């Protein structure tokens, strides 16, 4: 792999070619890069830095890797350590699978290089005591991952505010000592700082050696970055200004501009999720990342759900915490990941949203959702008076539109039921709980159980068929049937581990003779045993509900024989008739 080192024996040099200064690692992410180095008043330049951006990266998902090292321990040993650190770190990040998570990737890459430098510094007399600083940024999707040790620095300019993102690992107060307490190659075991930043368009990052920040004041660095000249011009200006000071040291600057960000990608969320640990299951009253946990709303086998107060935004939210279970961590992460991805891609007033706290705030894995004032459809359908035709149609049509939005995005919900429908106090509706949704464009992980609730699962699912849009239509039909019937199921409730039998659905008119026959026909089609007899899609179902009263329809459902609708009762009556006939014959 060819790495662009920034060494120049004299004068000011830039190492990034024009074609590399602006690159789009994948669609939507554009980064501008500028770099410059100077040996200053030293005989040799012991700084080494590189930035890899654009399509040259073999690692999909990672947008840019920028690293800077400042050598110590003698001119030759210091420069060798710095170059090894930067080259090895970039190569190590590229070679690992992205699914490991960027924090782990960067930590493993840095640790491997540290052990190599440590070993060489103790086995080669010419490199005795070789060591260096290392400050690196890995831009991945919409996040910046930082790894740091030593006294090089990383700054961020955002909205004309300059923030120092690193801490000098030196004796005494920052900037007052050059004695390092942490560095690459000093010890066999690495102890580096890690941080994650959420990127914003127009963010500007500066990675620099102590020859820059040790000569320029904070205000001078801010002024240079805030001029918003091109990254290359800015890097040159900063280094020129640093080496113009008396007793100038090696000075190196890398400037990165975030020009555009991609939409949230599934891979971005997968990488981000991998970074956060699963914590022990929390309890009411705890405060986690400035979320104060209130009432526990659900305590399932795999998730615990709380109503919480966001102290920073001063609003109520819902927090979902996966329960640590041996062997199931990947599946639990996947459930939250699905909800996050769907919320970022599906735009519907009837589908739940997902809130994404800043990376700097988060310390563990959980999901944050808005708190919707209202009640579940399950609670409403069990309460008197029964749901009216007008209200029920309004709810049903909104639900079909929610499903239509998901299906258009290639998403199958797989757990449509009244418990997963929120009727908002303001008249709105939200379809929630997308943790078991099927994403067509992604490989399905092995599941520890069939997703869905048995009483709402279509017949083909019990035969092992994969969930499709038609099985969502079936679940929606059962949901709407229960809403109007006051809780009854068209085929009866399916108990756990029981094998259901699907005959003919009980007509809705059995429970609600006041409702029109056309609605009975609509629901009977939605819950048809054969998926080919159901509505082709949710849009067709919505159309039927919206225009059902306008079309001609039978006044009642086609008559069904007692033998077909209730064979047990049929044979009871036949037996009674035969008994009466026998008694008459014997009289």
TrEMBL record:
Q: Where are the transmembrane segments?
A: 568-586
Occurrences of domain PPM-type phosphatase (ranges): 32-258
Protein kinase domain span? 291-550
- State a single Pfam family of this protein: Pkinase
Range of residues in the leader sequence: none
Keyword check for ATP-binding: yes
Q: Which UniProt keywords apply?
A: ATP-binding, Kinase, Membrane, Nucleotide-binding, Transferase, Transmembrane, Transmembrane helix
| MF terms in GO | ATP binding; protein serine/threonine kinase activity
**InterPro entries registered for this protein in UniProt:** Kinase-like_dom_sf, PPM-type-like_dom_sf, PPM-type_phosphatase-like_dom, Prot_kinase_dom, Ser/Thr_kinase_AS
Q: What is this protein called?
A: Protein kinase
- The source organism is Steroidobacter agaridevorans
